[in-house]
Structures are given as C-alpha cells and as structure tokens.
Structure prediction request, 126 residues.
Amino acid sequence: QVQLVESGGGLVHVGGSLRLSCAASGRTFSNYAAAWFRQGPGKEHEFVAAISWSATIDYADPVKGRFTISRDNAKNTVYLQMNSLKPEDTAVYYCAAVLGGLGYARLKAPSSYKYWGQGTQVTVSS
Prediction:
C-alpha cells in the first residue's frame, strides 16, 4: 500500500509560480510511475503530467512549456513546478501512482493509476 500526500497548493496571481509536492510513504517509490491530474470547477478530471519509473515524461498540451514534473526517489517525492500560471489552471491537483512500468500511451490515463492523494487546491487570480 502506498499513501500519497500532496502539498504546495495555494492562491497565486496570474503569471505566478507554485511548486506542488507529492510525498509517498509505504513503499520504495523509485519503482512507481507517477502523475498529476487536476479537476477544475465544473470540469472533468484532466491529465496534467506524468513521469514513469524510467523518467519518461509526458505533458498535457495546455501546460507544455509552463509546467515541469520531476521526481526525487531518495525523498520518495514527485514535484510539479508550475510557472506562468493562468486562471484556467485553477483546480484541485491530484497526485497518482502505480507500481511498475507504464507504456507511453498509458501514462495519461487515470485508470492506469492505483493510488491517489487527497488533492491540493490551486487558485490563480486575475
């Protein structure tokens, strides 16, 4: 069993930055694929970014060039650096993880992930 705890959310102005953290406990995280999803007001669950255990990375088109996903296996933590934030980035951001490798096509599918955090709110004000 893996427990995921997100942190780092908050209120930021347009153009600002935030760094989200997802701390994993319970297992050695280096063997897990991890991802960030978000759900904005009145919107569907949306893929944001993912990183496999082998460091293959994928981003959703709306965040490419602005967000960066990374991992520190020594700290069992995955990060999401968010720059140039826009009002449409306002959402609850969720961390997800699954043991083992995922093919590139499966990295962005919510159904690929077994473990989920509780979410952290990000609000971008204009």
